């Protein structure tokens, strides 16, 4: 949908819509106390009625929504939000829809109706696409149509899940004493960690809004969607094996497996990142339109942010297995502070690209803190220094791409491939063998059916 957005929305309109969504999502963990996470966890407890768990979740969500409505109206009189105009009123509207949608997603999963949650996700995607086409191309509603599409999607999916889970909601006469306090005791500690990730990924947009205007926010938000291609690929790799590996974390075999996979995961992701960097301009030209495409040179550094973010996620899973969540929070705060300070110091002078570099630097600092700390629990064969050196090669490649020296950028890719050939080759051969076996099974079964 990015080509559509950048074709029909101006940089100012895209910036306004992004700030509305970002603010609504910022207030979500604070005002709901992350109660949806407690709903998921407590639905698994056999001695507690899921309907009582959901009742607590709805109660906290209603309280948070009332507070959000008051805040949304008050934002009309705050000078900082004047550039958002009347669209600031969408903040509480989107907040309520997002909160209800998240609440019922977690509830559906908690009572074992995973298909309902998955169907709601597919339904939401279809609605967003359809309504965007209708509101932006047919009715030409501009930013209003964009915001209405996402808002309507949240409410419809929440309603669908509520109706689908209706049979699991019994009418209990009395609530369980102390259940709300137990759930809040579980969920409130999750709020700081959620906010720390928000500080790293989104607070720079508020700095841009204050320093260089809403148009810059729109440009950055549009370019930020391009590296999500790499994010999806990284998530596929991570989810494919990491969860099963950590189930038996204490065994020596599992730790050896994690060590081996760390090197292979690093090798695969860094090579994918280097390839996407050299393709950054053509990808941006295809996906972005008008003034948005002029800022394609921001995307290489955002791809590097995704790379370090993938490594951060890998190490974070190790800390989760060790039940050392404090380290995850501390490292994220450290990276966020570094990113914010860098942005404040250089944004006015160098513009939007500084935010991309600051984000990259923030993710790198989180990785560095976690990489040094993880040695206490797990010795990884891929050293910190060699990892940093390869990260520097990505930066050099990005510089060559930005000045159109693609020959030297290709040399950087070759260097990274050479350094990681031993780690990436088993992955390549495994993928080729699996693909060959899959094709053989299809052909064999097809021929057997024909006979």
The number of strands is 0
Share in β-strands: under 5%
Share of residues in helices: over 70%
Q: What is the C-alpha radius of gyration, as a whole number of Å?
A: 24 Å
Helical run tally:
19
What number of domains? 2
The oligomeric status of these chains comes to: single chain
Characterize the main sheet: none
Specify the structural class: mainly alpha
Structure description:
This protein is an all-alpha fold and 451 residues long. It folds into two domains: 2-169, no CATH class; 200-421, no CATH class. Helices cover 81% and strands 0% of the residues. The longest helix is centred in the C-terminal third of the chain and has 45 residues, at 406-450. The model has no long low-confidence stretch (mean pLDDT 89).
Write the layout of secondary structure elements.
Blueprint: H1 2-8, H2 11-32, H3 35-43, H4 50-74, H5 90-110, H6 114-138, H7 143-164, H8 179-187, H9 190-201, H10 203-211, H11 214-225, H12 228-247, H13 252-278, H14 280-287, H15 299-321, H16 325-350, H17 352-374, H18 384-402, H19 406-450
Keywords:
0% strand, mainly alpha, 451 residues, globular, 2 domains, 19 helices
Brief overview, please?
The chain is mainly α and 451 residues long.
